Amino acid sequence: MTAMCDVAFLLLSFFILATKQKPPEALAVKTPTSVSAKAVPDKSIIITFTADGKTFLALGDDTKKEAVVKNLNDTRNLGLSEAELNKLAKAEFIGFPINQLKGSLNISGTIPADKMPGIPIDSANNEMVYWLKSISNAYAGTEQSKLEQMLLVKGDINAHYPIFKSIKDAFKDNEIYKFRIVTDGEAPPVGSELYNSEKKN
Amino acid sequence: MAEMDTSSGGGHKKGPGVKKQKKQSTRVDLTPMVDLGFLLITFFVFTTTMSQQTAMNMNEPKNDSTNVMKVKNSGAMTILLGKANQVYYYYGQLEADKLSEQFKSSTFKEIRGLIVAKKKATNIDDLMYIIKSDSASTFKNAIDILDEMTICGVPPGHYAEADITPQEQELIRQTELANGVK
């Protein structure tokens, strides 16, 4: 009995310590599944789109956040003050049209992501193009390959295809041809070509 | 039963006038604690998801009108994604007088077999899958079909996404009407 009790508590402590508590997500996104086995990098720039078509940007790399917002401020002539730029750089999600950015930064406190209108990405006014331009400017030169590793697109399975298409177009407009999609890992189906080739190795 | 002995060491001599107290059991029943322990283990085992988020690579072609890739008719299979998870496909090029024969509908379950069959029947150099998504299809469909290419072992460069043409959209509409897809 004592031994069993010991084992039980050992297991219990293992699971408690090994479980990484997932912080409640600000945006409810159910990602599609894929057989890809590559892990998502910790530091990343994530473009998230929800099922109702709202698009958000999360700049995960702290070292470049300020450079990105500063570049956008300069290239789009937003006239943001130093304090406003800092606030924008600190935001977890960016989800306002560029012309509403200044107004949104003057609201005290943080606006929850699900209350934001999202970045407009329709083909007539695809603002993701400007954001990606600023991002690629911030990483210009030797860090370009680093950027390729960091660009992630995370979408909801029920989002309609044109939203994804607009985001792809925004990448292409900035001559970024490689990015990655966040998916839930799954095992290759038994009997498929991929399954057999993995078994051989 | 697992119990804890909390009695202080015996051998404590009492004075001559002190009455002998009745010894009370100082053992604590540990069963509830063990029960709770197992309950928590069960809880953590069931709620822990081992699956981690993964990243799928996407390579987009450059928009280069001077360098258009030629695809052989015999090696091409066009896969179209419609609404309600419907998949449509045709081989080669659409010919006006044989549309109904060429344009077939399928599902995500069946399409794997068709992809593999086409791959087996075609010389690998000529093989090309063209994926076109209708505006009513979902992000999940677009990722699933690319994943299907990986699952079927189609080498990169032998499948590509392309824009849907109005003719194909019209064919999807008609087929949806005929099949009663809402």
Supply the key terms.
heterodimer; A: 201 residues; alpha/beta; five-stranded mixed beta sheet; 12% strand; globular; B: 182 residues; Nucleotidyltransferase, domain 5; two-stranded antiparallel ribbon; 8 strands
How would you sum up this structure, described in words?
The complex is a heterodimer of chains A (201) and B (182). Chain A is an alpha/beta fold. In chain A, α2 crosses α5. Chain A is built from eight helices and five strands, in the order αβββαααααβαβα. Chain A has a five-stranded mixed sheet with strand order 1-5-4-2-3. Chain B has a domain of 107 residues: Nucleotidyltransferase, domain 5 (2-Layer Sandwich), CATH 3.30.420.270. Helix content of chain B is 34%, strand content 21%. The longest helix of chain B is centred in the first third of the chain and has 17 residues. The mean pLDDT of chain B is 79. At the A-B interface, α1, β1, β4, α7 and β5 of A face α1, β3 and α4 of B.
Write the layout of secondary structure elements.
The complex is a heterodimer of chains A (201) and B (182).
Chain A: H1 2-18, E1 33-34, E2 45-49, E3 55-59, H2 62-75, H3 82-90, H4 101-105, H5 128-138, H6 144-150, E4 151-155, H7 161-173, E5 178-185, H8 193-200
Parallel strand pairs in A: 1-5, 2-4, 4-5
Antiparallel strand pairs in A: 2-3
Helix pairs in contact in A: 2-3, 2-5, 5-7
Chain B: E1 3-5, E2 27-29, H1 31-47, E3 53-59, E4 76-81, E5 86-91, H2 99-102, E6 104-107, H3 108-121, E7 128-133, H4 139-151, E8 159-162, H5 166-179
